[in-house]
C-alpha cells in the first residue's frame, strides 16, 4: 500500500479526531419509489451489518430515525463479548433532530420532530441522545450530527428567525454533549452555505464550528460552491447516497462504465474513488457481500484529471436528488 492510499483511508477533523473516509451506511429501506413499501426497513440491518463486520467494516453511519441503532448495538455487543472487537476499533456516527416526515416514516414523534413542536428543544436533544446511546449500548459516539437544519417545506412561522434560533440551541446542546465526552466530534447534515454561515455567526467560537457536513452528493447531484465553502472553513464534506440510492440508473451511465472498464473496476468503485479523490468521505451501503468487498477495494487505482472532470460534468445541470432539497429549508 502506498502513501497516497494511506492518506485516502483516513481524514483528520479540525478538532484532531481521525475519521475513516468510508463508513457503512445503516439506513435500510426504499425512499426513491422503486418498491411498493416506501420507508425504513431496519430488519434488513441484521444481515447487512453482520456481513459488514465480517468484511472488516469498522465505521458505521446511523441515525435515530433509521430505527437500526438497537440492531447495530446488539451486533456490536456480540463482537465485544467474544473479544473480537473493542470500542477503540470502531468509528460510530449518529444523527439527531430529524424533522417530522411523511407518514411512511413519521408514525409518531418518537424519532422525528419539528423544532417548534417541542417545549424544550435542548432537553429533547439530550433525551434522544440518551436513548441512542442506550440502543447502541455505548458510552459515546465518535461523531454526532444535526440531521436536518429545519422542517420540510415549513416557513418560519410567526417568528421567521425561529429555525435559526432553534439550530443554535441544538448546536449549543451538541457542544454540551461533546464537553461531557458523549461525542468525540460534532457536525451537521444537509446544511447549505446559508445555514452554516448563520450557525457560525450564532456560535462564533472557531473551535465550535462543525467538523463535518454530511450532504447528498453523487455524480448526478453536486454542489461545488458548498464544498468550496466547507473546505475553506475546515469542514469535512461527507457524501450520503453516494450511489444515488440506486436511482436514475446512475451506475449504468456509459461514462462511468467506460472509465470503470479502463481500470478493471466496477462503476461503483469508480464513483467511490471519485468521492475520496475529491477530498470527500462517503457512506456506501449494500446488502451483498461481494459489493461490500468491492466498495473497500478502491485504493489501488487512481482516476486521471480528465476522468475526474468527466465525472464532475455529469452533475453540471440541475441536481437530481433522492432526498429533499435543503435549500428549501428556512
Describe it for me?
By secondary structure, this protein is an alpha/beta fold. It contains 11 helices and 12 strands. It has helices spanning 3-9, 45-54, 69-82, 121-136, 162-179, 193-202, 224-233, 254-263, 267-277, 289-296, 305-313; strands at residues 10-12, 18-20, 24-25, 29-30, 39-40, 59-61, 91-96, 141-146, 183-189, 212-216, 236-240, 281-282. An 8-stranded parallel β-sheet has the order 3-6-7-8-9-10-11-12. Strand 4 (29-30) and strand 5 form a beta hairpin. Helix 3 packs across helix 4 and helix 8 packs across helix 9. The termini are far apart.
Entry keywords:
alpha/beta, 330 residues, 37% helix
Could you give the topology of this structure?
Elements: H1 3-9, E1 10-12, E2 18-20, E3 24-25, E4 29-30, E5 39-40, H2 45-54, E6 59-61, H3 69-82, E7 91-96, H4 121-136, E8 141-146, H5 162-179, E9 183-189, H6 193-202, E10 212-216, H7 224-233, E11 236-240, H8 254-263, H9 267-277, E12 281-282, H10 289-296, H11 305-313
Parallel strand pairs: 3-6, 6-7, 7-8, 8-9, 9-10, 10-11, 11-12
Antiparallel strand pairs: 1-2, 4-5
Helix pairs in contact: 3-4, 4-5, 5-6, 8-9
Amino acid at each position: 500500500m502506498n502513501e497516497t492510499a494511506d492518506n485516502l483511508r483516513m481524514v483528520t477533523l479540525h478538532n484532531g479526531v481521525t475519521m475513516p473516509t468510508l463508513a457503512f451506511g445503516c439506513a435500510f429501506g426504499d425512499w426513491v419509489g422503486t418498491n411498493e413499501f416506501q420507508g425504513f426497513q431496519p430488519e434488513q440491518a441484521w444481515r447487512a451489518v453482520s456481513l459488514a463486520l465480517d468484511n472488516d467494516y469498522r465505521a458505521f453511519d446511523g441515525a435515530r430515525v433509521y430505527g437500526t441503532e438497537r440492531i447495530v448495538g446488539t451486533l456490536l455487543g456480540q463482537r465485544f463479548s467474544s473479544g473480537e472487537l473493542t470500542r477503540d476499533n470502531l468509528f460510530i456516527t449518529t444523527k439527531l433532530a430529524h424533522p417530522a416526515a411523511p407518514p411512511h416514516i413519521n408514525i409518531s414523534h418518537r424519532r422525528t420532530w419539528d423544532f417548534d413542536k417541542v417545549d424544550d428543544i435542548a432537553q429533547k436533544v439530550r433525551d434522544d441522545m440518551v436513548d441512542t446511546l442506550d440502543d447502541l449500548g455505548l458510552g459515546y459516539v465518535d461523531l454526532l450530527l444535526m440531521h436536518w437544519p429545519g422542517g420540510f417545506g415549513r416557513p418560519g412561522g410567526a417568528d421567521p428567525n425561529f429555525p435559526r434560533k432553534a439550530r443554535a440551541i441544538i448546536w449549543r446542546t451538541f457542544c454540551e454533549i461533546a464537553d461531557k465526552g458523549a461525542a468525540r466530534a460534532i457536525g451537521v447534515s444537509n446544511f447549505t452555505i446559508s445555514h452554516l454561515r448563520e450557525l457560525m455567526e450564532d456560535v462564533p467560537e472557531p473551535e465550535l464550528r462543525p467538523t463535518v457536513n454530511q450532504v447528498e452528493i453523487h455524480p448526478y447531484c453536486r454542489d461545488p460552491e458548498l464544498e468550496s465553502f466547507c473546505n475553506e472553513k475546515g469542514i469535512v464534506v461527507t457524501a450520503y447516497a453516494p450511489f444515488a440510492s440506486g436511482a436514475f440508473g446512475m451506475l449504468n451511465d456509459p461514462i462511468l462504465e467506460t472509465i470503470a472498464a479502463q481500470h478493471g473496476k466496477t462503476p461503483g468503485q469508480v464513483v467511490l474513488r471519485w468521492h475520496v479523490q475529491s477530498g470527500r468521505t462517503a457512506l456506501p451501503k449494500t446488502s451483498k457481500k461481494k459489493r461490500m468487498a468491492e466498495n473497500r477495494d478502491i485504493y489501488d487505482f487512481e482516476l486521471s484529471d480528465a476522468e475526474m472532470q468527466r465525472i464532475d460534468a455529469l452533475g453540471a445541470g440541475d441536481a437530481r436528488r433522492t432526498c429533499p432539497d435543503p435549500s428549501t429549508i428556512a
